[in-house]
């Protein structure tokens, strides 16, 4: 079996505020996502979202169910969104091949039986994924960068000039509850998701990549009136509970993937917090 998994339980914010650095990191940070010829998955008790990384290096990897799912196939009761964060590669879904380029996305709906990830012909394949429970079966679809809903926000003067590409949102592809996108910061900009916000109707996960090896991102979380931070490196992810803000600042510009699951598919459903109100 090529899939490795762990489980993260939901945590109340009153408990979380007492955590030291080690406890904070072990509860929310996902340090290792990519291991050669392995699918790594973290099953969270926040809206049952699974966060994972796929690294087929010398052999193809099949998406298999693990014990916690209590299902014959991984997608028997789930949908999955996959974003390629490395070299172009191929994904086979029930006998159909999908060529997925760098930063392109693939949505696979509930009910797919045989999902296989192939090594890249040139370079290495690394695919980041989020998976959420599903109530209906929607067609598998690849989403290119040209098909994404693209928004440019911020400015260099505010250190947050960025391009947001919404690849798996309801204005682009039909999903049950999963939403994902890619945000790229321009050179000279380091802040993401500022002003910060929360959304009690949904949880979120962030995955940071294209970050130089000698750089780091300081990811901010917690209630707006009592924030905490986690220092993160390239190819690491962080779980953001519904009660938590999710924002970051890096020692360099970088790219990150945001993924959400929860009660609704309204991208704009958020409760903003002014920078002057953060504590």
TrEMBL record:
Keyword list (alphabetical) reads: Isomerase, Metal-binding, Zinc
State the source organism's domain of life: Bacteria
Fetch the InterPro entries from UniProt: KduI (IPR007045), KduI/IolB_isomerase (IPR021120), KduI_N (IPR027449), RmlC-like_jellyroll (IPR014710), RmlC_Cupin_sf (IPR011051)
Question: In its UniProt record, which GO terms are filed under biological process?
Answer: D-galacturonate catabolic process; D-glucuronate catabolic process; pectin catabolic process
Enzyme Commission no: 5.3.1.17
Task: Look up the record and name the pathway of this protein.
Answer: Glycan metabolism; pectin degradation; 2-dehydro-3-deoxy-D-gluconate from pectin: step 4/5
Reported cofactor(s): Zn(2+)
- Which transformation does this protein catalyse, written as a reaction? 5-dehydro-4-deoxy-D-glucuronate = 3-deoxy-D-glycero-2,5-hexodiulosonate
Q: What class of enzyme is it?
A: isomerase
Q: Which GO molecular function entries does the Swiss-Prot or TrEMBL record give? A: 4-deoxy-L-threo-5-hexosulose-uronate ketol-isomerase activity; zinc ion binding
Cofactor: how and how many bound: Binds 1 zinc ion per subunit.
Q: Say which family it is in.
A: Belongs to the KduI family.
Protein role: Catalyzes the isomerization of 5-dehydro-4-deoxy-D-glucuronate to 3-deoxy-D-glycero-2,5-hexodiulosonate.
- What is the designated name of this protein? 4-deoxy-L-threo-5-hexosulose-uronate ketol-isomerase
Per the UniProt record, the source organism is Fulvivirga sediminis
What gene makes this protein?
kduI
